[in-house]
Design brief:
heterodimer; A: mainly beta; 7-stranded mixed sheet; 4-stranded antiparallel sheet; 11 strands; B: mainly beta; 6-stranded mixed sheet; 5-stranded antiparallel sheet
Chain lengths: 112, 110
């Protein structure tokens, strides 16, 4: 059982480049999330999707876009990467009955 | 923005000691979770609390949810090096917008 799968695991971008982080879950969860985690900080919510076809902004959405492609997949796009977006990005899906979030392994992104 | 504040931010204690970490919010939670995160990994759920005043135990870990459902604590008895990690609380304020606290980085010294 794969759970939540994120790709890539590591990425280095130059300022101004674009990229898409991919996330897929095989647990049939409706809700999916993208967080970023910076040193010494907890997880900050970028965007979330409560169901297929819906997306909402979180705490730090600027500079990002998302697509809920289907129930399984939720992608995060950086259109023009900036050094301030250097971070570890986590995708998660939510099991509603006990509000348990399942996380991917994370993507370590460096923007130079 | 619904904020969750955790304290302390860092805690370093000797093996065998007891400790308590706290999670506080100005808003009422529908439910609250505690997660532990190890380096290079995503957070993993420890417990979910839902009812005000609820106490749950997981081996040497005791979780308490405040009566007003605005705060929670995690108490570890006889800490062991394997307890080292980042402890995160997360709150659901009834809108499926799962919000995480700033975390407590715990180090247990053998």
């Amino acid at each position: 059982n794969a759970g939540v799968t994120q790709t890539p695991k590591f990425q280095v971008l130059k300022t101004g480049q674009s990229m898409t982080l991919q996330c897929a879950q095989d647990m049939n969860h409706n809700s999916m999330y993208w967080y970023r985690q910076d040193p010494g900080m907890g997880l900050r919510l970028i965007y979330y999707s409560a169901s297929e076809g819906t997306t909402d902004k979180g705490e730090v959405p600027n500079g990002y876009n998302v697509s809920r492609l289907n129930k399984r997949e939720f992608s995060l796009r950086l259109e023009s990467a900036a050094p301030s977006q250097t971070s570890v990005y986590f995708c998660a899906s939510l099991r509603l009955w006990n509000t348990e979030a399942f996380f991917g392994q994370g993507t370590r992104l460096t923007v130079v | 923005t619904q904020l969750l504040e955790q304290s302390p931010q860092f805690l370093s204690i000797q093996e065998g000691e007891n400790l308590t970490v706290y999670c506080n919010s100005s808003s009422v939670f529908s439910s609250l979770q505690w997660y532990r995160q190890e380096p290079g990994e995503g957070p993993v759920l420890l417990v979910t609390v839902v009812t005000g005043g609820e106490v749950k135990k997981l081996k040497r870990l005791t979780f308490q949810f405040g009566d007003a459902r605005k705060d929670s604590s995690l108490h570890i008895t006889a800490a062991q090096p394997g307890d080292t990690g980042l402890y995160l609380c997360a709150g659901d304020f009834g809108n499926e917008k799962l919000t995480f606290g700033t975390g407590t980085r715990l180090t247990i010294i053998p």
